[in-house]
Amino acid sequence: MATSKVTVHLPCRLEQVWQTVTDLTHTTWRSDLARVEFLDGTHFVEHTKSGYATEFTVTACESLHLWTFTMENGNMSGSWEGIFEAAQDGAFLTCTETVNAKHWWMRPFVPGYLKRQQKLYLDDLRKELLK
């Protein structure tokens, strides 16, 4: 199991950060996604531009504070937690992602993969919020 945790400061209102992160109907700002498929109120599937699907189940949603979900695809299972906090000059977002590789040979690559994915996601988010 690998875990990656990062906290970023975003120079915009907490409400804007929350809305952008949790609005799964507007995901064009995500450079890695082709589309999101809604299954019901707590289940959705992200489809990458390369066609790979990952299923998600929302496990907690506390408006403007906490959003968590589990995730699973053919290569991994895990969880993601986003903690949102207001700051005097913007907002803080702390993302914690934990992943279990389903194949033993993938395990050494998971920590680096998580760091790259989190960086891409947060870079995309910052671009979206500051445009």
3D structure, described in words:
The chain has 131 residues and is an alpha+beta fold. It has a domain of 89 residues: START domain (Alpha-D-Glucose-1,6-Bisphosphate, Chain A, domain 4). Helix content is 22%, strand content 47%. β3 and β4 form a beta hairpin. The relative contact order is 0.25. This is SRPBCC family protein.
In terms of topology, how is this protein built?
Layout: E1 2-10, H1 14-22, E2 33-38, E3 43-48, E4 53-62, E5 66-72, E6 76-87, E7 90-101, H2 110-129
Annotation keywords:
22% helix, globular, Alpha-D-Glucose-1,6-Bisphosphate, Chain A, domain 4, alpha+beta, START-like_dom_sf, seven-stranded antiparallel β-sheet, 2 helices, 131 residues
Q: Low-confidence parts lasting 5 or more residues at pLDDT below 50? A: none
Rg measurement, Å? 15 Å
State the helical fraction.
Answer: 10-25%
CATH architecture of one domain: 2-Layer Sandwich
The fold-level CATH name of one domain is Alpha-D-Glucose-1,6-Bisphosphate, Chain A, domain 4
CATH H-level homologous superfamily name of one domain: START domain
